[in-house]
Amino acid sequence: MPLDIGQTVPDFSAPATGDTTLTLSELRGQQVVVYFYPKASTPGCTTEGGDFRDRKADFDAANTVIVGISRDGIRAQENFKAKQDFNFTLVSDKDETVCKLFDVIKLKKLYGKEHLGIERSTFLIDAEGKLAQAWRGVKVPGHVDEVLAVAQALDAS
Questions:
Q1: Model confidence, pTM
Q2: Of 85, 87, 101, residue with least CA distance to 14
């Protein structure tokens, strides 16, 4: 069941890069961009992560934390972060707990075969922990700029 705009996002904790655990409630008081990507070190995911990396200072100025999530293990996330010099946290959701919370596991087709995978999606959570905006079926080009514009407008309100 998807989250609705204005609904408080249920708290979650998951293993994160830097040998840490990310707990959503510990980020209260800041806006949070949670973006889901299909697989570490693939072209689209590398481009999207790079776009967030390159605009991080602008997100920081808008009181907004960036968190990337995929089903990759923590070692793959650490390698992806290091190789791409990502300056934000990546979360490993191998058991799909967070993916299911945000309803991003979808039936996908690859080379004619169907499989369950992450639908590239981004969510903006306000400083009180409520869902402010959701983007599903994201196309990478220009996406980060759109998310940033909404985060800046929300921070200014």
A1: 0.95
A2: 101
- What long-range pairs does 10-16 form, CB within 8 A, spacing at least 24? 10/101, 12/97, 12/98, 12/101, 14/69, 14/91, 14/92, 14/93, 14/97, 14/98, 15/74, 15/91, 15/92, 16/67, 16/74, 16/77, 16/89, 16/90, 16/91, 16/92
- Would you state the structure tokens that stand for residue 136, as one six-digit string? 């599903």
Query: In whole angstroms, what is the distance from residue 1 CA to residue 6 CA?
Result: 15
Helix, strand, or coil (residue 97): helix
Per-residue pLDDT tens over the stretch 49-88: 999 999 999 999 999 999 999 999 999 999 999 999 999 9
Per-residue pLDDT tens for 24-34? 999 999 999 99
Active site residues: 45
Q: pLDDT category, 157, cuts 50, 70, 90?
A: confident
H helices then E strands: how many in the chain? 5, 9
- Closest by CA to 68, choosing from 141, 3, 140, 142, is 140
